[in-house]
Amino acid sequence: MLMNKFSKYSFILFFCLGLNAVSLHAASSKTTLRVCAAKDELPYSDYKKTGFENSIAKVLAKNMNRKLEFIWSERAAIFLINDLLKKGSCDLVIGVDEGDARVLTSKPYYRSSYAFIYRKDKGIAVDSWQSPDLQKLKKFAYTPGSPAEVMLRKIGKYEENFNYLMSLINFKSRRNSYSRYHPEKMVNEVIQGNADIAILWAPEAARYVNEATELVTMNVINESKVKYKGEYIEHHYNQSLAVRENDKELLEDLNEALDKSMDEITKILKQEGVPLIQSKDIAYH
User: What mean pLDDT is predicted for residues 202-219?
Assistant: First the structure.
């Protein structure tokens, strides 16, 4: 009896799992491109579709001959894969690091870098972590957990900067909640003279630098990798599209669409002011 009961419920379990897998696979259709997108995460995306990744989505859908549908998330873009993509609510995340282990990623469509942003009248020149002018500076705006945090520890500027960094989120504890260090705020900190320099992912900051181009300069960090405590800290990254691990057919379609779309995508990125780093893997048009 026990064996029969186990077999019965095993069958039900496997049947349900099978239906779930089928439903996830069927979620990506040939007629609609369902894009996971954050509702309030400029410059990447917002519900008004004014982010540069919203524009890239429009180009891809057009060149795939599919209707575009944004599936919006109230939460930050870092949650899109687990909250929406893996659950089958949508089929595509735009702007992930190539090779992200959680998903299948497309061929890269651009490569960019972290960058130093500072006032033009500051009287400094910084494009490398070896730049002597860095030692003259006291207040650094950056995102915790980014390469900048590691490198500020290396050059001995982390501890003295900690209180200023926490002031950017009003000293709110980040232990049990997500607090975004908004790039517009950090660029404005530089413009207003509250920060000596910002070290940000250039695509995230480019829009706000462009709006104040007469006041600030943005120099990409010229080292692709910097060694720290025996490990290499990456500063340049390829950006790709992400789909679920079982959605290989959609991935093939997206790779074909990228080939057709590179002219338009490159134009969007250049208009945004994103610094594009040359790479053997990417043919900018």
Answer: 96
